[in-house]
Fold this protein.
Amino acid sequence: MLRDRVAASDPGLLRLAAGLRTVGAIALTLAVLGVLGMSVPHLVAGAIAAMVATFAIREKQRARQAVTLALGLPVALVSMSLGALLSSRVLAGDLFFVALIFCAVYGRRFGDRGTALGLIGFQIYFVSLFVGASVSGLPELYGVLGVAFLCSAAARFLLVPETPAGLLERLREAFRVRLAQLVSAQLALLDAGPEEIDSALKDVREGTARLHETALMIQGRLEEGTSDAGAARLVQRRVADAEIAAERLGLLLLTARSSERADTLTLHLPGAPAPRPGRMPGRDEAMNRVRRDLEALRLLVLRPVAARSGTALSQVRNRLLGYREEENLPPAPPAVQDVFRGVGEAARAVLGLRIALDGPQDESDDSPATARSREELDAEDAVIDAGEEDGGTQEELTGLRRPTTRAAVQVAVGSALAIAGGEVLSSQRWYWAVLTCWIVFINTASTGEILVKGYRRLLGTVLGVLAGIVLAGAVGQHTWTAFALVLVLVFAMFYTAPLSYTLMSFFVTAALGLLYTLLHTYSLSVLVLRVEETALGAACGVIAAAFVLPVRTDRRTNDLLVTVLERLDDVTEAAVDQLSGGSPEELLDRARDLDQALADLRAATQPLTHPITPLRARRDTARYVVALLETCAYHARSLAATAELLPTHPSIAADPRLRRAGRRIGENIAAIAAHVADERSTARVETGPSIASLLESEVPGTPRFGRVTDRVLRHVQRLDETLVGLARPLDVPVATPGR
């Protein structure tokens, strides 16, 4: 269905809502100003001001959004006034612009509101330069700004309203659809031939990553979107269960396709070879049934079981949940039987997700296996603690060590260079260089990130100039036709912004070409100057980042890598301790902290993994390290989820012997983190006996594993092996037994 595709491609409809809200604010502003008979420069100023007032505000609570928008209007009025007053005083205007840029960037340390007000102040000053504001024209411009901010408020709160609860509901629906898409990709992987296997595996990797992304988005919206803390924790738990069950099912399918157990890394490393089909007696017959059950699982995800009893879908659900019972498994090789168990666990996760999101369901048609699954879910729900755990304190960085202060100094120096160079190119439109320098610093934290962002902006600008030439020639002086096209381009800009910075730059440059036409300043030389100023601004940003309080990409990625390792240690230590009989702790929040730290690291390594990087070996190493960490995070999440089942699951209980395994894992994580933080560290990663052998009882005659499940052992063993594998690309010494 089209609705499902849109929900999956744009979780929560965030991009669609942002585009519609911004376009609505601009259109409403243009309509009001048009009725008032304002001139074209005022229409342009109002359109840009409405856009800025709409996209600058990023707070989640509606009340805080309203306060920030109200505070933004006086900031905009002051900025416009100073822009007009200083327009004829070149040196004073340049010095103020640099000071304004410093304050706008420094304001990011005060959170979303500080960021929004700084952005409004900078952009409105830019508007004053763009439309040539003068002191005599300030009264009309004040009115334009007032209309723009009122229309922005109307678009935000009336035309395209967004409530935390409504957004969370859309994110939940997106999670369901993406889960169904992942099951479809796994089904395609099952059927893929030798020529199709690599493409099918890529789809599974992308589906897994997209599901994980949506789970993180839900986690970030739970607090605001759910009034009941207990309900929020229940949703968080069920989303995590479904995510882990789906990822585990993909691994089991890979193993069932081949004659050997698939490496977890295969699902996380782009370009990793896919397991080829192996010979396994009886597998093909059982695979036909797996295929049917995967399709049934996909239907369970998308469609709720009907209230009336005896429906085909409820019977399918009962059958899939029956696979969790050992006696209900069909005859098949062990690897294929594991797939059936995985399908059963996924069906249980879907059932739990349905109950958490949709409330109690009809139980009249439950089989004994389904009834037992419901009892387990109810027992888990009963022990979920809605209390919050105390957060730890972080060391507060001061002075130039604070990222916002350092970025403010860097962008101020870069902007000063851009002003000087821009005025050499053009005394009238030098501000384009400053705008580019400013933009390349937004949401970047290292020299490499700024370099990549500057390159993408320049590429998008060049392509946008070509499009602007075509559009400006086609539109001519048809004012309202040009504004209509601007609205289309603005919507495309906001809809594509999270996907591609190059595309966003393309659309904004094409829109500017039309605005130039409306202001009667369009010419080929102006658009060429736009490219030159953009290249200059990007170069000034890179120079400032490289020579003024620089943060090298290696340093930033190393800092983030240490953070990921610390979060991994937190999750693993707490999970193993609980599985060993320790006191219960909050594990899912710790697992999500690990996921967020890993997402930050993945973003920071983009300059290292970008296709244009000439250092191929370094690029491959960065990808390999991130893939290994994703594998570690998967096993840590699985251990955390299993540990939280201890109070309720009949086949999982604490085993004190797990502490031996956890001790070695913790020491190895600490050794890797110490070496990343300081290459002179002498810490070494220890290898030795397998995890299973570490669990051997010291008392003769004691059962080998007691009540600890094989699944826990596999996760701990794979985590231990992956950490040893992680040590090698990071050049951490590995100590072998007996040496």
In short: The longest strand covers residues 685-686. DSSP finds 27 helices and two strands in the chain. Confidence is low (pLDDT under 50) at residues 385-395, 699-708.
